[in-house]
C-alpha cells in the first residue's frame, strides 16, 4: 500500500494558511460585533476565532520544523515536531477559546447579561463569518475526501487513523467554527425574541463545550502520535506477507513499526532465515528485501531486518506480552 509523500509547502500548508487568514478576519469582525451588541455568545465566538488563528500559527510552525532533515542529534529526523506543535494547538483551543466561552456564558447566566444592542449587526457579521468559514472548511473537506479516497477509506476512518494532525486540526476546528456560528446566531436570536440574556449565556456555554470537545479529540490524537503509534495495520500486514514470501525466509517472527512523522515509518522486522543459508546469503537477501520494501512502501523511512530464530523463548515472551495469546498460533506455524 504505497502512500503519497507530501512535499514541504504542499496542500496541508495551503489548507492551514487559508484557514488562518479567514480566522483572523473573522475574529476582528466578531470582536467588533460582540462589543457593539453586548452578546456573550458573540464575544465567545470572537475568542473562538482568536484561538483558531493562534492555532494556525502553531500549525504552520509544525509544518516548517517537522520538515528539517535528520542530523546527528536526531537521526530519525524531526517529523514528530508536527505532533508536538499540533498538541499545543489543541491546548490553545481549550485555554483561549473554551475557557473564555465558559466564563462569558456562566457570567451571563448567573449575573445577568448586558442589554442587547443592534442585533442586526450581529446577524450580518455571523452570516459573513459563516460564508468565509465555509471557504476554509470546503478546502479542508476537499483535501480529506481526496486523501481518504486515495487511501480507499471512508472519511471517518481516515480521520481516525490519519498521521497528519494539521489536516485533522483544521478540519475539526473549521467544523466547530460553523457549528459555533449557528449556536451564536441562535443565542442572539432567542435573546432578541425573549429579551432574556440567559439564552445568550447558554449559547456561550455550548460553544465552550464544543471547543473543549474538539480540544480533547485533537489532544488525544497527538498524544498517541507523540508516544509512538504503529503504522497502518493494513500496511503492516502487507509488509509481513511480502517478507514471508521471500525464498530465504522461513518465518516472520516479529514486526515492529512506529510513525516518526507524517508519511514516515520506522520498521524493524525479525526474520527466521533458512538455516542452510550462509552469512553472505543472508546479507544479500537483506539488501534486496530492503530495496524492494522501500520501492513498494515509500513511506518507510528506516528499515531494520534482524535474523532471529522463531524458537527463541525470550523473544516469544516479548511478542506474546505485546500482542496477546492470539499471536501464538501464527508464531507456531511452519
TrEMBL record:
Membrane disposition = Multi-pass membrane protein
Which positions fall inside the Cation efflux protein transmembrane domain?
A: 17-224
Q: What SUPFAM superfamilies does the record tag this protein with?
A: Cation efflux protein transmembrane domain-like
Cellular component aspect of the GO annotation: membrane
Entry keyword Transcription regulation: no
Q: What is its main location?
A: membrane
A Pfam family cross-referenced in the UniProt record is Cation_efflux
Name the keywords, alphabetized: Membrane, Transmembrane, Transmembrane helix, Transport
Listed GO MF terms: monoatomic cation transmembrane transporter activity
Its transmembrane ranges are 12-33, 83-103, 118-135, 170-191, 197-219
Tell me the GO BP annotations in alphabetical order: zinc ion transport
Keyword Ligase in the entry? The reply is no
Where does this polypeptide localize? Membrane
Question: Signal peptide location in the record?
Answer: none
UniProt-listed InterPro entries = Cation_efflux, Cation_efflux_TM, Cation_efflux_TMD_sf, SLC30A9
NCBIfam families associated with the record = CDF
Q: What is this protein called?
A: Cation diffusion facilitator family transporter
Amino acid at each position: 500500500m504505497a502512500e503519497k509523500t507530501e512535499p514541504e509547502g504542499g496542500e496541508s500548508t495551503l489548507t492551514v494558511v487559508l484557514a488562518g487568514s479567514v480566522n483572523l478576519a473573522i475574529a476582528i469582525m466578531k470582536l467588533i460585533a460582540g462589543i457593539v451588541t453586548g452578546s456573550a455568545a458573540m464575544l465567545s465566538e470572537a475568542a473562538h476565532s482568536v484561538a483558531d488563528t493562534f492555532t494556525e500559527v502553531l500549525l504552520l510552525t509544525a509544518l516548517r520544523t517537522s520538515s528539517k532533515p535528520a542530523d546527528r542529534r536526531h537521526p530519525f529526523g524531526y517529523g514528530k515536531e508536527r505532533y508536538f506543535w499540533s498538541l499545543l494547538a489543541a491546548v490553545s483551543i481549550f485555554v483561549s477559546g473554551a475557557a473564555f466561552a465558559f466564563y462569558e456564558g456562566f457570567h451571563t447566566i448567573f449575573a445577568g447579561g448586558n442589554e442587547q444592542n443592534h442585533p442586526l449587526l450581529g446577524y450580518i457579521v455571523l452570516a459573513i463569518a459563516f460564508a468565509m468559514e465555509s471557504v476554509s472548511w470546503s478546502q479542508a473537506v476537499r483535501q480529506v475526501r481526496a486523501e481518504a479516497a486515495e487511501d480507499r477509506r471512508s472519511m471517518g476512518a481516515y480521520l481516525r487513523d490519519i498521521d497528519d494532525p494539521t489536516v485533522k486540526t483544521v478540519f475539526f476546528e473549521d467544523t466547530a467554527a460553523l457549528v459555533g456560528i449557528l449556536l451564536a446566531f441562535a443565542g442572539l436570536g432567542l435573546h432578541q425574541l425573549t429579551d432574556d440574556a440567559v439564552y445568550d449565556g447558554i449559547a456561550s456555554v455550548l460553544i465552550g463545550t464544543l471547543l473543549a470537545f474538539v480540544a480533547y479529540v485533537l489532544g488525544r490524537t497527538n498524544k498517541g502520535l507523540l508516544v509512538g503509534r504503529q503504522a497502518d495495520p493494513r500496511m503492516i500486514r502487507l509488509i509481513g506477507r511480502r517478507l514471508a514470501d521471500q525464498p530465504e525466509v522461513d518465518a516472520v517472527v516479529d514486526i515492529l513499526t512506529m510513525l516518526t512523522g507524517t508519511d514516515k515509518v520506522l520498521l524493524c522486522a525479525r526474520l527466521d532465515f533458512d538455516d542452510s543459508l550462509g552469512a553472505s546469503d543472508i546479507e544479500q537477501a537483506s539488501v534486496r528485501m530492503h530495496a524492494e520494501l522501500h520501492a513498494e512502501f515509500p513511506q518507510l523511512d528506516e528499515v531494520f531486518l534482524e535474523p532471529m530464530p522463531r524458537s527463541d523463548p525470550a523473544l516469544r515472551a516479548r511478542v506474546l506480552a505485546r500482542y496477546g495469546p492470539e499471536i501464538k498460533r501464527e508464531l507456531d506455524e511452519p
